[in-house]
Amino acid sequence: MLRTPPRHLAPPIRDRPPTRNHLPVESVLALAAIVLTAAIVAGSMLDRQQSSAARLPNLSPPAPTTTRAAAVATSPATAVASPAARGNPIANPGFEAGLTGWRPLGGTGVERVDGAREGDWAAQLTRGSARLPGLLLADILRVRTHHVYHATLWVRAAQPGTTVRVNLFEARGGRRSSVDTAAAVVGRRWRRLEVRHEGRRGGAALGVEVLAPGLAAGSRLLVDDLVIGARAGVSGVGR
């Protein structure tokens, strides 16, 4: 029969420490891991979408832009001149690019005005202090012998009964020769004048002048659309 040792001799009974509750901490860590994983997956999907979109062509129309050339209005003095007829050696037949190359005779008043036959501009002559009002365009081209040259232009006067004369001539060394003339009495409607000239001196400069000997003081003459043409052959003009 076993005997139980006396209580004072038995080993002491130790209390076990209470078991800690780890469930809340583990739950928080698991939830954080889920959130982090979801964020990584979402970021990866977004990167793929952006990458795919970058490879697709842009089908939307481009936004309108304003360049300096479009924003600055073209001034009349810098407008591009277009010849009034094919082969016209005059680059500015309708005075759209100014009065460059033209010279007033004597004290003739010359300016560029609106009210043109075609385009926006025409040349306006006033008598000024000139005894013989007129406008000159020299050295248009070099003359070739036995080539026929013709000049056409349109004129209109503020006062009916104004006489206009057009000369087509050759010049060399400052001396004029071989002049052919056409004249007409014009009024308030545009009228076409034409003069022909046969080349006589090869290498001479061909020039044209518009004269208004009867232009009254305070009146004006409009000139527009000068065209110079040429063809080979003998016409018999100027003989």
Task: Describe the protein's architecture and organization.
This protein is an alpha+beta fold and 239 residues long. The chain has two domains: 23-54; 81-232, Galactose-binding domain-like (Jelly Rolls, Sandwich). It has two helices and ten strands; from the N terminus they run ααββββββββββ. It has helices spanning 23-55, 68-71; strands at 102-104, 109-113, 122-126, 134-142, 147-157, 162-172, 175-186, 191-198, 205-211, 221-232. Strands 1-4-9-6-7 form a five-stranded antiparallel sheet, with no helix packed on it. β2 and β3 (122-126) form a beta hairpin. The longest helix is centred in the N-terminal third of the chain and has 33 residues, at 23-55.
Count of DSSP-assigned helices: 2
| Overall residue-averaged pLDDT value | 77
**CATH superfamily grouping of the largest domain:** Galactose-binding domain-like
Helical residues, percent: 10-25%
Reported for the largest beta sheet, the result is: 5 strands, antiparallel
Cα(first) to Cα(last) distance is 172 Å
Instruction: Give the percentage of residues in beta strands.
Output: 25-35%
- Overall number of domains: 2
Q: Please state how the strands of the largest beta sheet are arranged side by side.
A: 1-4-9-6-7
The beta-strand count equals 10
CATH fold label of the largest domain: Jelly Rolls
Question: Structural class per helix/strand content?
Answer: alpha+beta
- The arrangement of helices and strands along the chain is HHEEEEEEEEEE
CATH class of the largest domain: Mainly Beta
